[in-house]
Amino acid sequence: MYLFLAPVNGGGGIDFELNEGTISGDVSVDQTKPGMRHRLRAVAVDQQTRDEKFSEVRRRFVFETGGANPTTVWMFGQLDGRLDAGDGKATCNSTMYIYDADSGLMGGDSYYGEAISLGLGNPQSMIVNELLMVEVELTPGRICEVVSRVELPAELDCSYGSCESNFENTFEVELSGVPEPTTPSLLVLGGLWLRCTVR
């Protein structure tokens, strides 16, 4: 029923088989071997007093440990970006979930932040650097699903000026079988990194 791609070695004796997944929203998303990368930015300028972008990716996977016992798995999310309220309000709402295909939601975490202008000539900006984490116990061989979503509204208080929610190229999802980031790009890239790790 579900098309899984070639197994990906996640380290720690665990392999992941991810399907091609489903993407919804109005921005591009790159599907990588271990996960996916979102690209997201919303800008309200002058007569366009409101702009709202969202991106959601759902990707099913199977993981194998060479055994049948349930295994504790973590999903980490590092969210990095910038909210510039300018002459209005800029918001970021980010969520991540992990599901078991048969038993439903197993765990999730979310972040909400906003920057609000204090009035004309007094713009407010906010750097977002937040860690999200989910800990679940998965059974080898079961089909699970990773869901990641970002919503970025930007809204002006009047018919001129600008405000921006900028998380372009900073929302990356990855499944892994080790508890620490081992890929150099994960240590350098900004974004939301979701990593499935096994103890």
Summarize the structure.
The protein has 199 residues and is mainly β. Helices cover 3% and strands 63% of the residues. The chain has one helix and 13 strands; from the N terminus they run E-E-E-E-E-E-E-E-E-E-E-E-H-E.
Throw out a few tags for this protein.
single chain; 199 residues; mainly beta; 6-stranded mixed beta sheet; 63% strand
Structure description:
- This protein is mostly beta strands and 199 residues long.
- The chain is built from 1 helix and 13 strands.
- It has one helix spanning 184-188, and strands at 8-9, 15-18, 22-25, 29-31, 35-45, 50-64, 71-84, 88-100, 104-116, 125-138, 143-156, 162-175, 194-198.
- Strands 1, 2, 3, 6, 8, 9 and 11 form a 7-stranded antiparallel beta sheet that branches. Strands 4, 5, 7, 10, 12 and 13 form a 6-stranded mixed beta sheet that branches.
- A hairpin with a 5-residue loop joins strand 1 (8-9) and strand 2 (15-18).
- Mean pLDDT is 79; it is low at 181-199.
Spell out the helices and strands N to C. EEEEEEEEEEEEHE
Contiguous uncertain segments of 5+ residues: 181-199
Percent range of helical residues: under 10%
Tell me the major beta sheet.
7 strands, antiparallel
Principal-axes shape call: elongated
Question: Structural class per helix/strand content?
Answer: mainly beta
Rg over C-alpha atoms, rounded to the nearest angstrom:
18 Å
Strand percentage lies at over 45%
N- to C-terminal separation? 31 Å
Query: Can you count the helices?
Result: 1
Overall pLDDT:
79
Per DSSP E runs of 2 or more residues, the count of β-strands stands at 13
